[in-house]
Amino acid sequence: MSEPVLSIRDLHVSFPTATVVQGVSFDVMPGEIVGVVGESGSGKSMTARSVLRLLPKSARLGGSIRFRGQEVLDMSPADIRAMRGALVSMVFQDPMTSFNPVLRIGDQIAEAMTLHGQKDRKTLSDRVASLLASVGIGNPKARARAYPHEFSGGMRQRALTAMAVANGPALLIADEPTTALDVTVQDQILQLMRDLNATSGTAILLITHNIAVVASLCRRLIVMYAGRVVEDGPTDEVLTAPRHPYTWSLLQSVPRLDRATGRLVAIKGQPPDPAEPLAGCKFHPRCPWVEERCTRDEPPLEDGVRCWVRPAL
Ligand SMILES: Nc1ncnc2c1ncn2[C@@H]1O[C@H](COP(=O)(O)OP(=O)(O)O)[C@@H](O)[C@H]1O
Ligand SMILES: [Mg+2]
Predict the structure, then answer these.
(1) Which fold has domain 6-229?
(2) What is the mean pLDDT of the segment spanning 7-32?
(3) Pocket residues for ligand 1 (CB within 6 Å)?
(4) Interior CA angle at 168 toward 90 and 200, to 5°?
(5) Mind listing the pLDDT tens digit for each residue in 163-177?
């Protein structure tokens, strides 16, 4: 058995007002594509950003994040910079903040490759053009000379994805990379990730609202609720035989899983306010199977499920 490329243990992310990630643990194996789903506010982005230490200044981190065995929470700023881009890349929902507005797109992608070893100018510009072409950007040689504001949002997202995969990273973290894009562009980006995974063995942690994407791309699925992992298992099992009531509720809200547009929609009730203490299982106020002890003690994540009752679903 190989070592995990990413190993998160008992991760906590706290703001002065609330703890928003509480005790998250999971591994990502080399070459594995892992999906993360959960309602808005469940701590998906904070978990993802913790890996690259891209959190707001007021956030406090606890626990352990090991990338290829090295503790990320102990890394110096220089170590973190070296890791970003070359070894771990991230694609965000809003790519505007990820490009420098005064530099040409192609130069920024080339720069990312130069930082991590590639030096030859001709090789660089050819590689930039082929990366842009691979994300569906036509006339890539000319487009490489454009500035970020000259690209539409969808094109920036594609260019950002091209930059993220430029160095064939060991791990790509994609936080709702296709949410704002039309379906054709979504497909291109997902295909690029699939190719990258197949050719470079890049492991992918993919945060998404789209169950169809999860079903087609991810072998494993993690479900988050209120800053916790509530279910973690093989995608086909989680989708067809969910074991946590929250996962079950989420899937009830998807009209049909085989529909390309099968997106997760909100379920009844509200997730708990992280600033308000809530005893027991964080899902208990919304859970149809709630029992007395669910209101008292928080269940541990055991055998991939965080539930005392484990009803037949
Ligand atoms: N700078 C911040 N200060 C305080 N709370 C924050 C800050 N940023 C995010 N949060 C809170 O952290 C929680 C988790 O956010 P996030 O990880 O972005 O959720 P998700 O990506 O699952 O939608 C949310 O309740 C959000 O309001
Ligand atoms: Mg998010």
Answers:
(1) Rossmann fold (3.40.50)
(2) 97
(3) 15, 17, 20, 38, 40-46, 56, 58, 274
(4) 120
(5) 888 888 999 999 988
